Amino acid sequence: MKYIDNDENRGKRIIITVIGPDRVGIIAGVTGILAANNFNILDISQTIMQEFLVMVLIVDSENSSLDLSMLKDRLAAKGAELGVRIDVQHEDAFKFMHRL
Amino acid sequence: MLTLQEIIETITMVQEEHLDIRTITLGISLRDCADTDPRASCQKIYDKITRLAGNLVPVGEEIAREFGIPIVNKRISVTPISLVAESSHTDDYLLYAETLDRAAAEVGVNFIGGFSALVHKGITSGDQKLLDTIPSALDITERVCASVNVATTKAGINMDAVALMGRVIKDVAFRTSDRDGLGCAKLVVFANVPEDNPFMAGAFHGIGEPESVINVGVSGPGVVKRAVERVKGGDFGTLAATVKTSAFKITRMGELVGRTAAARLGVPFGIVDISLAPTPAIGDSVAEILEAMGLERCGTHGTTAALALLNDAVKKGGAMASSYVGGLSGAFIPVSEDAGMIRAVEEGALHLDKLEAMTCVCSVGLDMIAVPGDTPAETISAIIADEMAIGMINQKTTAVRIIPAPGKQVGDSVEFGGLLGRAPVMPVHRFSSANFIGRGGRIPAPIHSLSN
Description:
The complex is a heterodimer of chains A (100) and B (452). With 100 residues, chain A is of the alpha+beta class.
């Protein structure tokens, strides 16, 4: 089992998930917004699930001026443009559910 | 350390399986709001609620965005108004109900619970005034919920109160007949009522609670149903383990949201209520979980056993996931709020007697049941008495939320919309219980109440 994060920068990490039909420009579209706002990408994983692309990015928000809520809006708009669903969540939502 | 599979699982639970946090409920003590002048008392109540709950809705929305999990309801529970209003020089508590309604509207919550009285052993003058005010309060207010505790294992059943509540429920239905008896959906009669229940309509802020507190109610029948479907053909040990695992994950989200909300509002975190709370959405149904276990329809033989397994496994998984579990904590089986239950009733698979049996092994009771509008008050009281007996003897919470649907008969249905849903009118026994209910007095506490 591959762990796609580590315990550095706890509490500053955001998990971005992209789900939808694969097409050209998804990674570029998402990472472009992240780079422009100084989010550091710690990991990108992807898989195909029921013919859909599922991409998960773990990013460090430490040095970004954009808060989670604003990032969420921008990525949601980009997702609408690309025909995919993009969600942005604090990592605790996942850590709490699966770990004590 | 997280795996890709775990991240995808969480996303799927929210996006496809209706996982949500059903409610974060801010409990507020109003014990310092009593005053001999009812207007002064109501002003204190309004000021305190709007001061403490002012940030509840924005904080709830912020947390929902941050964690990517819907928080369906933000609500308030208060000290039972019968206790707060009792020292006021007034016979009419309508002003208190209007004040709660106004404060709830001001802070943007859809329900406020606590227009309540605890009368399991007897009725004080303040309790009596509150009970007399319930019909008009539920008629003229939009957001106020009322509850009355009429029995405990320690005290027995106050049958005078049970008789009275049959008449009160009929009166509420009559006064809200233009809305299909909607007022009855906001009135719960309890045995062994919990003091930290975050779920409406039965929530109030108990007398042993702190100044204010955050309690959380989770949901997640859809998640459990999908998990059960994945172990089709597995034995009961496998089934129970599967439900436990799902309940653990659901409850962890409740714990996270509750602790975060409490920290941001600057109040203590109380409990997670690990109930499976259905909604009328397809796939978000407790009945459908029972059917996924192998029953053709909810209500057929085997339903009570299936529900017992479900309820127990939810508790075991949930108890491991949260440091403080409380409230009702069990599977809810409201008819109108569960698409699978509605279908089972409409197809003749589920009757009132089977529902009563089911309430022996789960929370909470006969919930959101519509019965013919001409059902006598004594029959409604007798239905309540049966349910209270189950709670009293089994040392558990039971409740009745019943709607004698104005002008409706079996075959009709009442439509409340939203989370309250739609209830098909169910038949009741036609033989009278009037002479039994008419006896008056109390049913003594059972022998096992003598536990000291």
